[in-house]
Amino acid sequence: MAGGEVLCSFYFNGHVSGGRLGRDHKPEDVPTHFVRDCLMDYINFELPEDKRDGARKSVFSDLTNEEIAEYSSIISKKKQQRMAEEEKERQAEVAEAEKRDRWREHVLKTKPPAEARSMIRQDDALEMINDRVDVSPVDDFLPYHVYPRPFAASVIRPGWDPLPEEENTKPEPFQMNRDCDQVRAMIKQLTRADGWTIDHFRRTLGTVSRPDMTKFLNRRGRMDGRRSSVFELSLAFFKRREQLGLPVTGPVDNRHLQQLSHGELLEVESPNGCVAPERLQDEGRGEAATVISVPQQVLGDGSRNIASGTGRVLRERSQNKRSIPGGGQVSQSRKRNKLG
């Protein structure tokens, strides 16, 4: 036992070495130990304090007083750790719910009624997805390969045209090795992290309408949705990120960008040169476009600086520019127009 953790190792004779209090036991003893843990937990947290010592000695009469005290301490620490984890999850859920409420209020105030209802239905469908499923590849799901076409938008930067690193590599064929529930979970994981929204993702896929996306998100079951174009395009999106060496659903950080660009990628540098996402407000839409920060030293020579709020947009790629709130301009050749 180390730091309150239980250390076990198996012998070839079928016994388990270690465990609570360092005692050897057999696998068939595990259910009994589980019940004993539950009893100790009940005594520690449910019985009146003046009755706990007597109850422990009566129930665990096979242990010495020192062993009972150690056992009680182990169970109490586990309980406290579990309660702390549950409270952390609860606070995260509350924060996410408050964030969604603010978003709904914004949508209802700024969008036409029909569009607002469509956006809220799509977000409700996304929220109901179980994103804790195992998304590891399943080799025997569908026994055929897809030969994808390049996306018209970037799979790295939401709302942007493909970056040079995407244009210079051809999408590879892939096997349909994730099921529909896994793909739905991956969509939620991507769009609930910083950077991507569900509409960013939908527009990147190309011809997917909001009702089509909502319909796919509302389905349940491994095979439910396999004939939908949303399923195939979504899987192609994640496979493309995988091919580029990026996190399949997580945020893209500075290390990934440096590996892709070799110091030549158009990014935003924060004032202190650290990796920190900058949020630029898209004109007339009330939506935020994500720009990922990259230290200035990773950019090549000849960069041109353009003031833009809290950071600087580096390496101008086009003379066709538009203004952004906070002063400055951003290259229109790389920043895609937001669509409704």
Summary of the model, kept short:
The chain has 340 residues and is mostly helical.
Distance between the termini: 59 Å
Low-confidence stretches: 1-13, 262-340
Strand residues, percent: 5-15%
- Topology order in helix (H) and strand (E) letters: EEHHHHEHEHHHHHEEEEEEE
Average pLDDT number: 73
List the helices and strands and how they pair.
Blueprint: E1 8-10, E2 16-18, H1 30-45, H2 49-59, H3 65-110, H4 113-127, E3 145-146, H5 164-167, E4 174-175, H6 180-192, H7 198-205, H8 210-218, H9 229-243, H10 254-261, E5 268-269, E6 278-281, E7 288-291, E8 306-308, E9 311-313, E10 321-323, E11 329-331
Antiparallel strand pairs: 1-2, 3-4, 5-9, 6-7, 8-9, 10-11
Helix pairs in contact: 1-2, 1-3, 3-4, 4-8, 6-9
Give an account of the 3D structure.
There is one protein chain. The protein is built from ten helices and eleven strands. The strands form five sheets. Strands 5-9-8 form a three-stranded antiparallel β-sheet, with no helix packed on it. A two-stranded antiparallel sheet has the order 1-2. Strands 3-4 form a two-stranded antiparallel sheet. The protein has 340 residues and is mostly helical. Helix 1 (30-45) runs antiparallel to helix 2 and helix 3 (65-110) packs antiparallel against helix 4. The chain has three domains: 1-110, no CATH class; 128-251, no CATH class; 255-331, no CATH class. The N and C termini lie far apart (59 Å).
